[in-house]
Each structure stands twice: as structure tokens, then as C-alpha cells.
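Working notes for the structural subgroup meeting. M.R. asked for a predicted model of this chain before we commit to crystallization trials. I am recording the input and output together here so anyone reviewing the notebook later can reproduce the run.

Input as submitted:
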Amino acid sequence: MTVVNPNSISGITSITMPSGGDNVLTIHTNDGIERFRIDSSGNVKVGSAATISPDGDVFFTGVCTATTLAGAASGLTGALPALDGSALTGVASTDNIRTNTDATFLKGVNVSGVATVGSAVTISESGIEASGIGITCANINGTQIGGRRNLVINGAMLVAQRSLSDTGNGYTTIDRVTHYRASVNENPTFSQSDVAAGTTPYTLGFRKAFKIQNGNQTGGIAASNQIQADYRFEAQDIANSGWDYTSSSSFITVSFWVKSSVSQDFKYHLRTTDGTNRNYHFNTGVLSANTWTKIIKTIPGDSNITMNNDNGVGMELMLFSQYGTNLTGSFTNNAWSNWSSSERTQDQTLTWYATDDATFEITGVQLEVGSQATPFEHRSYGEELKLCQRYFYMHAFTSNHSSSAPADSSAVGMAARYSQTSFFGAIFFPVQMRSTPSFLKSIGTDHFILLKEGSNDSFNDIAVQDMGINSAIVNYYDGINNSSQAGWIQIENGYDGYIAFNAEL
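Returned structure, recorded in C-alpha cell form:
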């Protein structure tokens, strides 16, 4: 091997290496470290990490920094290491980032403009457009994103056919809401209230709420205290809803707005009533006083649930409760258990019950199939009224009756003479009722009037001759003594008179 130690070399146009083991050219620094080598095959090596071969290949075992890389990407072989996205700069807007296999992005992908998927789908700020293909929604709330979603009728508390305010038990105010009180010192008042302007949920389109105002419970808290309100579902509405109620991976979601004048936690339950009654326990959490709060609860199915496909009660949603310890127990929250009439909810805080004139309001009640709470499904007053009339129909009433409908709906209908003391007429229901209804009426001396042939004849009572789910044949009698062939029946104004038909659950 020949070693040359020059400070400078010039004018050399060719260097020929000897044959054999010396057929290699190397350059070393003065510390003896090889910095450059041309071997017998023509490979040029710089240090130990870079090699340039005679056929044009370049090999690096370290970091390659380049201003421009040109050529076909197909020439890249081997596994690529992870790329730091923050170091990728200068990619032109016309260029693409492509992979031949699935790509996973560990961070969000921000697109300024339009993202194109294949040749038919574009995604932009204004939405998703698809040409020639369908957009499926199997994973969007279990496909529950359109149509009639809310299984609750009158959830916005718009309809109150019976009265606007009452202290009694049962269905007496807001349609489809039943309430009950027992062992109280003073009865609470159940009513339809106005949602104040400027509040949420007012800004979301809610104008009415169901309100409970406590009485003065001077006796304090007792184990037997009870104030509650519930909504009852027809079994076939749940059975045909699309909820796979026996599967724990199928869900319904309950949502509603509540406001309490007292800050406390309120206990709730959802109860199934066919077969072995099952009870799902949940709560609102501590509410801020006098503040509207939206409650959302997603509830799974349960293998022990039975739901008949009929017009009976299938499920009951509690809207409010204040129970003494005679009706509460210890339960796992957000879980199903068997129903017990003596243990209906978890043990309760009764601060609200112990506060004279405390108030509680609820509106926007929605129960829908799926694991997500979608915006409330607002329906017109006319739609809600028709749905309510399947369960209760106020046919006629006077201006003295405390109904929410317009005053003076006293017309009853036409009647034909059956005998000197009895006239018959037909009343047709606006919708088919859930079942053959019961007949409700106010009676009293001269409560009703028969108008015929330029005169009238007052009478006291009416009765149902025959009735089904579509209509009723009514007998007008008790005080009629008339030979006219036909006439018109109405309720006499000045009385708290009404005629109604009830097929509630």
C-alpha cells in the first residue's frame, strides 16, 4: 500500500490502483480515521453511514436531510420509520399523501376546504354530499335520527283538557300526566305553568311546564309522606318502538328540563309493568335552586323485561317524587332491579317536602330509542291534542269550567225524540280511543237544554245508551217532556258543566 501525505495535490487527472488487496482508494484525516473510500467494486463510501453505488443507489444508515427529493416514489423500499408531522413542510397544495394500506391518524385531521373520499363523496363545512351511493346511519344513535322519535305524548305540557290547576289525585290537569299525594298536611297544587321568557328552555321553544307547588306541611317529615307524578306508556308503543328491551346493548334515552325552588337531588325510576315488573333507578343530581337544568339518562335493556304488544300499561316514567321511608330503599343507581311497591326509589332527601310552598317544574320530556339524546321533537298543539284524545276527550263544557280550551264549547249535538221524555243522539270521537271509555259528566237541575222549534226545554241528566271506541249513543232525559221530533242539545251556561270520555291508562 502506498501512503501519500501531501498538504496539496494538483494536476493529477488519473489515479490507478494496483490489483489485489490494494485495489482500493482511501482518504484519512491526520488522526488516522478513514473518511472516504472507493472500493474495488466502485462503491463510494463516506464515513460508515453513506454509500453510493455505481448503479445510482444511495444508502444512508442515519438521517438524510435534503432540500429536494426527485424521482419515482416506487423506488422507495423497506419499512419507513414514523414521520414527525411537525417537520413536514413545503408540501404543495397539488400534492398528495398516499398509502397503499390503511392509515391511522393519532391526531385530528384539519382540512381547510373540501375533503374528497373516492370519486363520489365530498365533505365540507356545509355538509356531506354523496353522488350515486347511500349514506348509512347504523352507528348514528342506533339509526334513530328521523321520523317520530319521542314516545312521550304531550311532553311539552301544551295540552290540559281537564283543568289548568287542581289539588286532586289522578289525571286532573296536564294531559297524560297522572299525580298522587297521600299523608300530607296540606294538598299540593298541580298545574300548567308558563315558562319565563328569556330562559332556557324558553329559547328552545318551550312555553308550558307541569308544575307542583307544595302545601304547608306543618307536621314535618313522616315515613308515609308521598307526592308523585308519572307518565304511563302504552305497552304496544314500546314493543313496536325498535328498542330491543331484553338486550343490555340496546338503549333508550330519557331527557327533560327541570327546575326546583329548593336545591336538592331528586330520585327517579323507570318501571316496566308486564310480567315481572322491573325498576330502573336514576337521579337528577343536586339541582341549583330556581335554575332550569336538562337531565339526560341513557338506559339499557334488561333480559328480565316483558313487554306485551297490547293497549295496556307497559312502562311508567316517574316525573317527580317525594317519598317517606315507607316507599324507599337501598338500590344500585343506574341499574335494573325487581319492582317493590314498598321500595320504589332510593332513599330520598325531603328538603323540598319540608319547605312550605316549594315548587317543582318539568317540561320537554322525551323518551327515544338510541343511546343519544337528540333535540326535543316539537309537535304542534293540534298534533298533541289528537294524540291526547286517544286517552281523554273533552267533548263539551261551559265557560265556567276550568279547562284550557277556549271558553264556551257548550254544544253537545243533535238529538232525535225517542219518547216524550227521552231524546237520543250520537257523539263521534275525533280519534279512536285506546279502549271503550268511561263517561264523565256534570249533572244538576237544568244543567242541559234542548232547543227545538223556536223554544227550549231544560233537563237535568244524560246517560250513555251504548258506547265503543269510536262513538257513543247518548240518552238525554230527566226533565224532558216534549213532543218535538228533533232538537239541539247544549250545556246551559252559568254551570260548571262538561261532557267527557276517559280511556286513560
